[in-house]
Structures are given as structure tokens and as C-alpha cells.
């Protein structure tokens, strides 16, 4: 991540994800949403979090593209707080990846609320899309 380990971006403090500090929060959130916690094993170390509310992760590549993944929020937080924190995370992420020389951000989802959110931030939706995965 950048030299800025934390930044107050609008109302919420955006922090760099630190596994030792934040993994238990994410595990709880995964359980709240009924998601398989093995998904945590696939997340990169480059994540951003608004503590107790929401997080997202960035896969940096060796080209001008990054991949966004792991969008999650605390189901017990107020919906308005979740929405505002996720919006803050997306706005911050756009600025963060620019500092890394990224020209294109890519992500995938099957969740309509995520589609609606990313459209507000200027992402194009390319449908239909199939994501494939395999363990090795």
C-alpha cells in the first residue's frame, strides 16, 4: 500500500488491512453473510478496511491493471453506515491505485447492490460473465 497507513477520508477512517488485527472481524462478517470462510485464504494482503463496518481488497498486477475483490461489510452495522463506508472505501481505492500507477480497475460480482455501487463510481458493467476457479 502507499506510505499513508491511515487516512481520514470523509467521515470514516480508512486503514490498511492487517491480517493479525482484522482477520477475526472478517471471519465474523463471512459467517454473518453465510459465506465460506475459506474465501479469506484467497484474499491478497492489500486490503482496506473501515473498522467494524466494511472492507475490500486489491490484487495488484505487474501491469497497469488491478483487480478488486472481497467486498464485505458487517451485517450488524447500520445499513447507512455500511453504504457510506463502502462508498468511502471505493473512493479511497480509486485514489490509492492511481498512486500505484494503475490505469484500469477490474472486478466481478453477482450481487446487484455491488453492481449499482460500482456504476456510481464510473465502472462499466460487462455482462454476462463467468468467473472460474480451481484449487491446485
CATH architecture: 3-Layer(aba) Sandwich
Please summarize the sheet with the most strands. Answer: 6 strands, mixed
Helix content: 25-40%
Q: So what's the overall shape?
A: globular
The parts where pLDDT drops under 50 for at least 5 residues are: 1-6
**Spatial strand sequence of the major β-sheet:** 1-2-3-4-5-6
CATH level-1 class: Alpha Beta
Counting DSSP E segments of at least 2 residues, the number of strands comes to 6
Average pLDDT reading: 89
Number of domains: 1
Alpha-beta content class: alpha+beta
Number of helices in the DSSP assignment: 3
Give your account of this protein's structure.
It is built from three helices and six strands. By secondary structure, the chain is an alpha+beta fold. The protein has a single domain, classed as Aminopeptidase. A six-stranded mixed β-sheet has the order 1-2-3-4-5-6. β3 and β4 form a beta hairpin.
Question: Brief description of this entry?
Answer:
By secondary structure, the protein is α+β, with helices and mostly antiparallel strands. The protein has one domain (6-120): 3-Layer(aba) Sandwich (Aminopeptidase). It has 3 helices and 6 strands, in the order E-E-H-E-E-E-H-E-H.
Any chance you could write out the topology, listing elements then pairs?
Blueprint: E1 6-9, E2 12-16, H1 19-33, E3 47-50, E4 54-60, E5 65-73, H2 79-99, E6 104-107, H3 112-120
Parallel strand pairs: 5-6
Antiparallel strand pairs: 1-2, 2-3, 3-4, 4-5
